[in-house]
């Protein structure tokens, strides 16, 4: 049976709710659709904000043949099949959901087809494309950022579903979904199947019956990653491994976990064991190369190592203190002896004068002389 979210999906731009900065009059996607401009781009934003819907509207408006793949379950063979399919002179638009799940090798394979125009790529990701998409592919795509839907947008989308409910129930549903239309519609559909009337109590019961999966941008996501980091900080490998397993089992992106481990290696271990950063980086590379499920072993290896390392936050704390002074005082004048005398005029103005390589002189700007950031 077709899910309700798919049944009520808008077919035209006029029916679409939200993302006015992209689809409003005179905005980039609106112009591209009206002018029939064919180009590759990436949608970056939270779940349920209209990425798939906009991709379909765009392709249909250009009379293109629309292909939809998920990077979780597809690979090179699927892309090759699409490229080789004869579509005459009709352009091909490939919507690749969760494009951040494609590893470097898969993205390299995709690149020449995008370059030659064999396919027009529309990628969708909840992760920062700067970290997840290889530079050559990213440079050939425009990035459009999608925002969580407003309460007004959510109310309009819920109204399309056609269910009767009280204002109290509708407000509760909008608040629970937190800008994710797909989550709201899915919960509404499940509640309608289980209960005669859609009330706040019925919605809460549906939520508790776990019809909705782990939400990777919701409270559970942040609570679990917080518990994971705090367990490593407290040098408790058993707890850290438990939260790691919980995230992997829930479908969390392993690269997100590995990236947080790289940050942790400098933030919490730092100079106590500098090689922790090397290990964390290698874990990240292993995750990129291997992928799930085997990369869970690499993550576990790294987690245990980081837990067992001595901890030292002095470099992190020093950096935050220095950053606070930069924000408070702005660009204070750099001492003349530290400036680079590139021209005669600069030399005449004493740029670089008196500079000594291994001087014990305080090199901070005059206003900050004597300031100590790094406290061991």
Layout of helices and strands:
Elements (H helix, E strand, L loop, with lengths): L3 H4 L12 H4 L4 H8 L5 E4 L6 H11 L3 E6 L5 H9 L7 E6 L6 H13 L3 E6 L3 H4 L2 H4 L3 E4 L5 H11 L5 H11 L3 H14 L5 H9 L10 H15 L3 H13 L4 H16 L5 H16 L4 H14 L5 H16 L14 H5 L28
Parallel strand pairs: 1-4, 1-5, 2-3, 3-4
Helix pairs in contact: 9-10, 9-11, 10-11, 11-12, 13-14, 14-17, 15-16, 15-17, 16-17
Spans where pLDDT lies below 50 across 5 or more residues: 210-214
- Return the domain count: 4
Cα distance spanning the termini: 63 Å
CATH topology category name of the largest domain:
Rossmann fold
Which structural class best describes the helix and strand composition? Answer: alpha/beta
Major β-sheet strand ordering: 2-3-4-1-5
Give, in order, the helices and strands: HHHEHEHEHEHHEHHHHHHHHHHH
Output mean pLDDT.
Answer: 88
Radius of gyration: 26 Å
**Percentage beta strand:** 5-15%
């Amino acid at each position: 049976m077709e899910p309700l979210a798919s049944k009520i999906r808008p077919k035209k731009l006029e029916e679409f709710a939200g993302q006015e900065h992209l689809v409003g009059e005179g905005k980039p996607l609106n112009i591209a659709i009206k002018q029939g401009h064919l180009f590759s781009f990436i949608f970056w934003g939270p779940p349920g904000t209209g990425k798939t819907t906009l991709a379909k509207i765009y392709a249909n408006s250009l009379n293109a043949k629309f292909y939809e793949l998920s990077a979780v379950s597809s690979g090179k063979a699927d892309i090759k099949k699409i490229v080789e399919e004869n579509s005459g002179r009709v352009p091909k638009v490939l919507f690749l959901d969760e494009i951040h799940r494609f590893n470097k090798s898969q993205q390299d394979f995709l690149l020449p087809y995008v370059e030659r125009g064999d396919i027009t790529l529309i990628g969708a990701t909840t992760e920062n494309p700067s970290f997840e998409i290889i530079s050559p592919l990213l440079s050939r795509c425009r990035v459009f950022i999608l925002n969580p839907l407003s309460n007004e947008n959510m109310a309009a989308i819920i109204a399309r579903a056609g269910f009767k409910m009280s204002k109290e129930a509708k407000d509760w549903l909008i608040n629970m979904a937190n800008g994710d239309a797909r989550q709201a519609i899915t919960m509404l559909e499940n509640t309608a199947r289980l209960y005669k009337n859609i009330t706040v109590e019925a919605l809460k019961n549906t939520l508790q019956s776990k019809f909705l999966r782990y939400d990777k941008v919701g409270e559970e996501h942040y609570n679990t990653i917080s518990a994971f980091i705090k367990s490593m900080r407290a040098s408790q490998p058993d707890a850290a491994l438990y939260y790691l397993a919980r995230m992997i089992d829930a479908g969390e992106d392993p690269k997100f976990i590995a990236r947080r481990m790289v940050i942790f290696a400098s933030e919490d271990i730092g100079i106590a064991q500098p090689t922790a950063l090397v290990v964390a980086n290698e874990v990240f590379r292993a995750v990129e190369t291997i992928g799930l499920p085997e990369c869970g072993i690499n993550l576990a290896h790294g987690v245990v190592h980081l837990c067992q390392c001595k901890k030292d936050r002095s470099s992190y704390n020093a950096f935050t203190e220095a950053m606070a002074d930069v924000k408070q005082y702005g660009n204070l004048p750099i001492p003349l002896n530290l400036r680079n005398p590139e021209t005669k005029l600069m030399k005449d103005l004493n740029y670089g004068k008196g500079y000594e390589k291994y001087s014990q002189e305080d090199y901070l700007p005059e206003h900050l002389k004597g300031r100590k950031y790094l406290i061991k």
